[in-house]
Amino acid sequence: MSDNKKSTKIETRLITDGRRDEWTHGIVNPPVYRASTCLFDSYATMRERAKDPAARHLYYGRKGTPTQWSLEEALTDLEGGAGTKLYPSGVAAVNSAILGLVSAGDHVLMVDSAYEPTRAFARSILQRFGVETSFYDPMAGENIAADFRENTKLVVAESPGSLTFEVQDIPAIAAVCRDKGAWLLVDNTWATPLYCNPLALGADVSVHAVTKYIGGHSDLMMGSVTANERAYPLIEKAAFSLGQTVSPDDAFLASRGLRTLAARLKIHEEKALTVARWLRERPEVAKVLHPAFEDCRGHAIWKRDFKGSTGLFSVILKDGTDADTAPMVDHMRLFRMGFSWGGYESLILPSNPAGSRSATHWAAPGPLLRLHIGLEDTDDLIADLADGLDRYREHMARK
Ligand SMILES: *Cc1c(COP(=O)(O)O)cnc(C)c1O
């Protein structure tokens, strides 16, 4: 990356990154190169390329083609790392990165609000291979030092946390990790590279479920891992050993999503704030968990370390159980029910964090609904939620 490029604003780099002329051949986007076999024109070329298979030359389909390299290069620049690998899902990205950084006998410290499948991975495969995991309070900050063991090798953070949106003090945790000689991995999916750069805050590895905002259109599964100079060789080696690769078609879609990320995020952010502020005033709502709200845990850290908020937040209702949300969520017109998020459409999902917390205790007066605010008109979204909350209130009154 030239200094000239470094000084350009991130919104501009989002448009120009990864579009090398030798990859695009005079059109705007790198073409979709579908390849398993790449042909060598001579014995010497084959030998030469085998020497450094990680270099960006055509070698074998699993190493990628310019379609994947373009996306990797863009993410590396946007996250400010030394390199990026792509994976067939966000879960594959987090878990492969962990496998690259730990060995039997090591201990992993994972945030209590980590994405549930990452917790499950720690408790199954990692444990089976002799790696112990314990969980820490997302608000620990520098106090995480007390949770370190002699053999702690890696801290797995996610900020804000899944479902409950606690914002973590990454610089404070990074300082402890440096002091103790442990790696720090941050799942940066919520913020995207536009609103937070964990590597600049002291992390070694930044992970994305590209499936979410980077893809942005609910039509692909992908993950990415971007790492600093020190961690990248380990990340790359693990990705290669595990055979991690993505199709050029999906890489093309993800690159296309990336180009409009700044424009989409700004709208998700504004609309989510409008809907969240409206929800806060509703009598059925006990609390809105949104990092941009002062009463969100870690709000001051969000203000310090993030450049914006996105479209995903949670609402806690005043009373009832998960099952009591059925009359509301079953009849929504725009907020459809489904996993994932980050597409153009709004989503609603009843979720209960109680089952996936161990270092902290989840207590709430009523059920939690996770909302993703899409690009629809906010008056329409609010009308849908108003009718839904009316159904919830009537159902609770009849109980
Ligand atoms: C969705 C998600 C993942 C997993 O991504 P998939 O592509 O669904 O495997 C990981 N981390 C966070 C924070 C997520 O929201």
What would your notes on this structure say?
38% of the residues lie in helices and 15% in strands. With 399 residues, the chain is of the alpha/beta class. It has 2 domains: 250 residues, Aspartate Aminotransferase, domain 2; 138 residues, Aspartate Aminotransferase, domain 1 (Alpha-Beta Complex). The strands form 2 sheets. Strands 1-7-6-5-4-2-3 form a 7-stranded mixed beta sheet, with helices on both faces. Strand 5, helix 9 and strand 6 form a beta-alpha-beta unit. The protein starts with a helix and ends with a helix. 46% of the residues are buried. It binds pyridoxal-5'-phosphate (PLP). Pyridoxal-5'-phosphate (PLP) binds next to helix 6. The site of pyridoxal-5'-phosphate has 15 residues, from helix 6.
What is the mean pLDDT? 95
Q: Alpha-carbon distance between the termini?
A: 63 Å
- Using only C-alpha atoms, the radius of gyration works out to 22 Å
CATH superfamily descriptor of the largest domain: Type I PLP-dependent aspartate aminotransferase-like (Major domain)
| Main sheet summary | 7 strands, mixed
**How are the strands of the biggest sheet laid out side by side?**
1-7-6-5-4-2-3
The CATH architecture of the largest domain is 3-Layer(aba) Sandwich
Tally of discrete structural domains: 2
Task: Give the helix proportion (percent range).
Answer: 25-40%
| Quaternary organisation of the protein chains | single chain
Q: What's the order of the H and E elements?
A: HHHHHEHEHEEHEHEEHHHEHEHEEEH
Percentage of residues in strands: 15-25%
Q: Show unreliable segments.
A: none
